[in-house]
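WARN retry 2 of 3 for item q-0093 after timeout on previous attempt; input resubmitted unchanged.
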Amino acid sequence: MPGLIRHPEGCKILDSGLRRNDKITKYLDAKRYCTLNFKEITFQRPKVPFKLGTTSFIYPADWVANARALGRSFDELELLLFESSRADTFPTPATIHTLADLAADLDFNWNVHLPIDIHPGHPDRKIRQQAADTIVKVLDLTAPLSPTTHTLHLTGIAGRSAGPTVAAWLDRISETIDIITKNGFSGKSLTVENIPAYPLELALPVIEANRLEVCLDIGHLLIGGVDIATAFKLFKDRTSLVHLHGVADGKDHHSLDKLPPRTWSALRALLNDYTGTVCLEVFSRERLLASLACLQKGWV
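OK item q-0093 returned
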């Protein structure tokens, strides 16, 4: 496992080579001890056709500090709630109201990334119920933010599985989504993100039946060997969110300058016709600024 790196101010943050659960656990441990004030990130806005966002984990600090430093410069911030197993990994209701006030004051929107340690397609009904309960809890908690969407990983299958396996998985996913909608939430409030474990088109029957939105994660497409143009064409009418980041040595969430020039050129052409939200899904100031520089060069 790669070692930790240190923020210039002395707070530990993670190398992106760590598994994401390790990453966020360590990050949350670190931010308890990092109460520094950070300068706002400002930059010359690239002339992009889409709404521009980034994550709530750019600085090694809490959600409020990141929102204060980032909110004025972005259309949208992604509230990362990756872990659900620990009681202190979600914001308090008071913090949520502070984040809502900051969004109003600084003129930006929130979207929410739901926990990735839940399993909405698991064969065990109890585990699926736990996933549904966690999702409903987060949707209730974050309602004051009026999020544009809540992003979900539909786990529980791998690869291009056989027909009966896929059918059983789709039934389990449908059951979980049904629990969520019966708690008063519409399918359009959820965005299904592609993950490298399987091609997202396997989930199309559930996406279409429940009128779910799609989040195309570019790094996941590249790691999974999926053609980006094909994915854009297939999900174009449902893609409300794009997670944009670079890939290096088989690992994602790097800055955009790590993308091969041909890949970056093809991406720019696709994004020229996109008017949804593009989130620079990186987890450090250095990688954010490098990615913004790529956007500025790509859209003059």
